[in-house]
Amino acid sequence: MSGGGSSAPGRFADYFVICGLDTETGLEPDELSGENFEQTPLRRTFKSKVLARYPENVEWNPFDQDAVGMLCMPKGLAFKTQADSRDPQFHSFIITREDGSRTFGFSLTFYEEVTSKQICSAMQTLYHMHNAEYDILHIPPTNDKESCSSIEDCNGTSVSKLQRFNSYDISRDTLYVSKCICLITPMSFMKACKKVLEQLHQAVTSPQPPPLPLESYIYNILYEVPLPPAGRSLKFSGVYGPIICQRPSTSELPLFDFPVKEVFELLGVENVVQLFTCALLEFQILLYSQHYQRLMTVAETITALMFPFQWQPYMFPSCQSKLELPQEANLCFVDVDNHFIELPEDLPQFPNKLEFIQEISEILMAFGIPPEGNLHCNESASKMKNLRACDIVSDKRNGNIAGSPLNSYELLKENETIARLQALVKRTGVSLEKVIKLFCSNKDLKVQCGEEEFRVYQLNIQIREVFANRFTQMFADYEVFVIQPSQDKESWFTNREQMQNFDKASFLSDQPEPYLPFLSRFLETQMFASFIDNKIMCHDEDDKDPVLRVFDSRVDKIRLLNVRTPTLRTSMYQKCTTIDEAEKAIELRLVKIDHTAVHPHLLDMKIGQGKYELGFFPKLQSDVLSIGPASNKWTKRNAPAQWRRKDRQKQHTEHLRLDNDQREKYIQEARNLGSTIRQPKLSNLSPSVIAQTNWKFVEGLLKECRNKTKRMLVEKMGREAVELGHGEVNITGVEENTLIASLCDLLERIWSHGLQVKQGKSALWSHLLHFQENRQRKPTSGSFSTSGNIDLHIQNIGEIKTDVGKARAWVRLSMEKKLLSRHLKQLLSDLELTKKLYKRYAFLRCDDEKEQFLYHLLSFNAVDYFCFTNVFTTILIPYHIMIVPSKKLGGSMFTANPWICISGELSETGVLQIPRNILEMTFECQNLGKLTTVQIGHDNSGLYAKWLVEYVMVRNEITGHTYKFPCGRWLGKGMDDGSLERILVGELLTSHTEADERQCRTPPLQQSPSMIRRFVTISPNNKPKLNTGQIQEAIGEAVNGIVKHFHKPEKERGSLTLLLCGESGLVSALEQVFQHGFKSPRLFKNVFIWDFLEKAQIHYETLDQNEIVPEENWQTRARSFCRFVTAINNTPRNIGKDGKFQMLVCLGARDHLLHHWIALLADCPITAQMYEDIALIKDHTLVNSLIRVLQTLQEFNITLEASLVKGIDI
């Protein structure tokens, strides 16, 4: 056959296919649809066949008969009678081959009258059989038979029964069967194909015959209509009117021709974004609908919105009438027809979801689509559909609509998301009128397609640009974290499974904290891995994947803009700015059509061929349709030349069409580009010219450094900085993470300026490695030995894999150690190395600017950063422990086996056994975060199982942070309060060496007060006695500290454990309350507060048993108190009496019960026995004051650290 060679010749369509009923084989049940014999024959499905295809085969796209037959009519043949609705139905499908290439199918299914007598008789027979079976299964009771026979004279029982079962009577009914016409195309021009098929169907159903035989139109679409090249539009003729399609250029988003509008109408914005998130995280998705085209539209839209990522197939479209889901299936279920979505568990939120939804909603509302979707059968929804944005605004001007345009939509009032959006709109002060683009202003456009079609193009591109913008913003700097393979492509491909291709830890360390739940999971998906693999495989532009090329050009543009106005490093939402440009490109293609195809014409057909019968799609003449005009060499040779000529003309007219401002802008951009390219030649000029040329750039870098350091300090100091007049309230609240990432960007730009030769992707890391190499070659007495260690530490961290990642981790670690300025000063002190690496005009060789830059960085030492510890949470860190026992009281005689457990904000170590008589040890475990508590104890074995521990020190060997955990108490039975384990609360120590060595005039840092634990001496009775005023003050300060803690923004809060159990914490203050006026015990016997509480508990339990109930409120308090004391006494832990008291106070604070318990104990008879008359607990005025102070804690949700309440289940 003729159809060209094995490569595709660029035709619009490859095949025209007709599917339907094969009268020769008759009715065959469709096994693929499952057993459906219980259905009435009209509701059953039968096998359809491919009746004809034109041409028979093309080499570049072999015809797959089974796939096309099944996808054209997925449910097989359907039969109907004149009583049923028989509207034609359009749907599309995709055939994916083993090599991943795709072919697109577009199918129109309609109904034709069955003319075959055999088929009608077969259907009648099936009905008789069905009714007979039904009668056997449903035999009516005997007395009903008589009543049945009495009405036999009407139509007879068989007819009345047939009426009940969607009946078919051959003498009375007309039988119709489904038939399908289909186009198979290499590209997805859905709208154009739909028009072609609809016009062909119209030709056989309209009373007037078409102007030409149908063969002429089908021949035209198969052989004479070309595929438009990228960036061009095409016009060709259908049976009744012109059809237009346009294809995006290689610099635009890929071709997508399905209506996005329909998806948002069916599901609403919130559901679309949730479904989109599920698809990105590769959850299995089940789409359910009664309409094939809806399934296809939703699936293709979600896939297209993922640009630049490619969907890995886990989406199951389902058209079953009944669906049962397994309960345990953790998938995303979408009922498209009923506006319903069921999400999988633990679905993280898409970054900036609220602002993202707002941006999409603004576009939808401008097109008259309510953001929560068009709920069916809803009158206001249908009104909304027809509402135009310009009508809204003009109405408002005339006073017809009160308030903002949002208020006019009754539909939106009930929607939660829209309510949040409204609040956001008000807060940002944006007027919705300004936001909504008025598409009515495009009246003067003379686009070749219809207005409705143009609006579909507009909405599609606007929504797609907004979605694409999210990824260009999120992954703007992804390139530097790609791990390029060291070996050649083939061996890399062989070992692909074992290879890491992306430095995930470093990339995540740069991201704003709210993004992390989503991004950490997204980076693990197959689609992200494939995307990075593509990037690695395509080294040069020519072999780059087209999608990747478009994405990379967008990323480059963002980064170029970001150098001038750094906005990338902020969790602030960046709106899409590319909409106008993308819209303009489509508009230009539709205003001026690039190519008009040959019109359909009469073919060389025999006389009598090409006739048709009304209502029946004819059997076409295969002899004229199977051979194309391949013999016409002139058209074939000339087609590409014709497009090339068009290209040249188009470029010329594009330049002519620009107005003066635009032309000037392009010329200026070209000049700027030229000047930047010429920049390296500066080194040949005189120093004064170099200085003058570079002064502005260097000044800009310095100014940015000054602004950044101030911004970061203000952010770190939070409200305190605002109160001191160093910033505005709205400047705070930006992620610390993103500010530090922004500083890393700045350092990279400074280190990249004026480089002789760029080595690797990170200029800073390259410089550090050179410096380290020099030091190892010629060791000198320098104070940068720590930097050498840092480099080794960072290099040994397996999670950080790229140079950029290592440089960023090094900056974070240096900031956390308060050594960044000092390290960089030391790095730049090697002038010989700096000269070797940098040109004369480089920033790092401008001495004054360099000094100022280092001075700005020095200001970071004023605040504590944990930017390394908090970001690299999964790395292994060595910790050094030192236990300091009392020197006086025989620590060397200790015989028991000690253990320790260290807890931090991120995790805890679990119990670590300490070898006997070993007081120092180093161990490695996953990052614990900032350390909070240490649990220390022993197993009470041996002759001398008594241990007096002064304090414990723990040092993080990477960051150098040292924590001190004061104790000053015995651990041993019969000693002190009999405790075998204690919970110690720690505090970070300030390094003395750092304060001494700092060579600057700023005053030294205030050191953290070393923690004097509340039991310094052996006997608690030797503690200093406080008067009631001092005790009240201590309580007030402790409670005030907790209140202040909760009033701070979350990221500025310190340790709550310290405020509860620390030196001046709530536990210590309440201990003073209960010790005041405590009766002195007999000689050699210590009495503890816990003894008093246990007696009170026994008293209340006795009362409860005797059912002496003063009042219900009092009884509830007593019962809760007894329950907590009993639970603490029953804990398997060997904590002493003071440890138990601490636990009770912490639990009481958590459950807001402390003030109830104080009131209860003040009235308890046991108090009278164990306290003197002057005791605070007996003074009603002071007790009431104490209760009022403790009541202020009720409004706070206190969460206790696990180590404080371990072993308690209340």
Summarize the topology.
Elements: E1 15-20, E2 49-54, H1 65-72, E3 79-81, E4 89-96, E5 102-113, H2 117-137, H3 143-150, H4 157-164, E6 175-185, H5 190-205, H6 214-224, E7 233-237, E8 242-246, H7 260-267, H8 269-280, E9 285-288, H9 292-305, E10 315-318, E11 332-335, E12 340-342, H10 353-366, H11 379-386, H12 389-397, H13 416-428, H14 432-435, H15 451-474, H16 489-494, H17 504-509, H18 516-522, H19 526-537, H20 546-564, H21 579-591, E13 595-596, H22 622-625, H23 633-657, H24 660-678, H25 687-717, H26 719-723, H27 736-752, H28 763-777, H29 785-796, H30 803-816, H31 820-828, H32 831-837, H33 847-858, E14 876-885, E15 898-904, E16 912-913, E17 920-926, E18 931-938, E19 947-956, E20 962-971, E21 981-985, E22 987-988, H34 992-997, H35 1028-1047, H36 1056-1061, H37 1066-1075, H38 1089-1105, H39 1112-1129, H40 1137-1150, H41 1154-1162, H42 1165-1170, H43 1180-1191
Parallel strand pairs: 7-13, 9-10, 9-11
Antiparallel strand pairs: 1-2, 1-6, 3-6, 4-5, 5-6, 7-8, 11-12, 14-17, 14-19, 15-16, 15-18, 18-21, 19-20, 20-22
Helix pairs in contact: 10-13, 10-15, 15-21, 25-27, 25-33, 29-30, 31-33, 35-37, 35-43, 37-40, 38-39, 39-40, 41-43
